[in-house]
């Protein structure tokens, strides 16, 4: 038997190998998250499944774009939230697919030029190599081979520079982020080519923006209506509470498990020749006459805790829980009580990097990166979220009563202004140039005279609202009443004229350029949205 087996060893091993390959292939296909609807799939686009690695890619891409304030980010991030990156990922896929179909690509030179022109790497509009090196964490740019800046606090040079690998992003992935935004600019320019802004409309808009309007205004103070309004009934308040039930809810809360890795802070011993001065300083400190000396953190200690943070993060990435990884490192984990983002636990107050990390963890990505705040490192894990709950009626009763009263007095003041407008309209002739006489006769008070334009309207209470309300009203007419915080204003247009401006032609040309860019972008958005529909993006219920 053994002889037969030895004689046929190679064929047997070949057959076993084939069986194993088929078994692994079947297992991979069965649980391949790139297959739409497969276990672990978050959805699909262009008929291909979206897996966890796609979600993480979108997260890294989005956070990098936010850090650098890349133009066009608001468009690509439409529909995305801190806990849902899939719409952003889907927009990127459509962008890349359509650019490839149209033969558009970003060259290495374009990427380098784009990076050099980013405000994040400039000082007074000029390329600043030092800023770039602080971002890259290197001593030279090597032809703009990017790593990553220290996103957890100000760069001090004490701890090792933060590399892209901290976020799990390679150099090429970083350059791909830049390339995507170059593709976006190219597609906007392509789809908007040939579109121009109307000279007639631009000239008209310039005239509207630069005209001076002289007004007479009657004021009807809102507070004067208070004595005419009674108190709200219980049924009215209950009705308001029911109608605004979505508003009277507690905020979503979270429970977070975290580790805080702090260095051993030491104060160096004073030298012998300064011992006496040190003793005097110590006496002053104890008496409260001098501040406590700042603790000193050595580079070795800072590097030690940075390395410990790395080891915990790597252990979590390998499958350990945060508490297991922390326990192996000899560090205790702490679990918070449920809290909302506007009511942070004391240990997170005044720690901006930690608060940013709190805003980014989600059920999809529950563990943060290692976050440095001053001399300590934090690693956070979202344990659970607590859904909002209704706020009891009695807790908001006074607030509802105040809102009801405010609404009633405002409505009464507006009605008074409208009635005054009807009275004045009946008394004014066709060629009226003032409402003063008619207002006095109707006992409506004396109007005040003001002159406004768009540039100075903010200096007058309700000025912007008056400009908008009278924009289409010819001289000699009443405009609609204008509501402000203190009163309702009834404006009458005395005259309007356009301010003379020696730079009128250049201003109009700039307005045309701005209008063209807006029209080009609108054309691109219409085209892109249609392509997005054709991409058949779907999202699994409960995923994101």
Structural topology:
Elements (H helix, E strand, L loop, with lengths): L1 H6 L1 H22 L12 E3 L2 E3 L1 H17 L4 H4 L9 H16 L6 H9 L5 E2 L2 E2 L1 H8 L34 H21 L7 H11 L1 E11 L12 H10 L9 E9 L13 H13 L11 H19 L4 H7 L5 E2 L16 H9 L10 E3 L2 E11 L6 H35 L8 H6 L6 E5 L10 H7 L12 E2 L3 E12 L5 H31 L3 E2 L5
Antiparallel strand pairs: 1-2, 1-13, 3-4, 5-10, 5-12, 6-7, 6-9, 8-9, 11-12
Helix pairs in contact: 5-8, 6-8, 8-18, 9-18, 10-15, 12-13
Could you explain how this protein is built, in words?
Strand 1 (43-45) and strand 2 (48-50) form a beta hairpin. The protein has a four-stranded antiparallel β-sheet, with helices on both faces. The protein is extended. 22% of the residues are buried. The longest helix is centred in the C-terminal third of the chain and has 35 residues, at 393-427. The chain is α+β, with helices and mostly antiparallel strands and 544 residues long. The protein contains 18 helices and 13 strands.
Features:
alpha+beta, 4-stranded antiparallel beta sheet, 13 strands
Radius of gyration: 34 Å
SS strand fraction? 5-15%
Q: Characterize the biggest β-sheet.
A: 4 strands, antiparallel
Question: On the 0-100 scale, what is the average pLDDT?
Answer: 77
Low-confidence stretches: 16-39, 137-167, 265-271
As a percent range, the share of helical residues equals 40-55%
Count the DSSP helices. 18
Number of β-strand runs:
13
N- to C-terminal distance: 58 Å
Give the overall shape, derived from the CA principal axes: extended
Give me the side-by-side strand order of the main sheet.
Answer: 10-5-12-11
Which structural category fits the helices and strands?
alpha+beta
